Amino acid sequence: MNETKPDPHHLEQETSETLRELILFNDEVNTFEFVIQTLIEVCKHDPQQAEQCALVAHYKGKCPVKQGYHSELKPLFDEMTFRGLTVSIE
Question: May I ask the CATH class of domain 18-89?
Answer without folding.
Answer: alpha beta
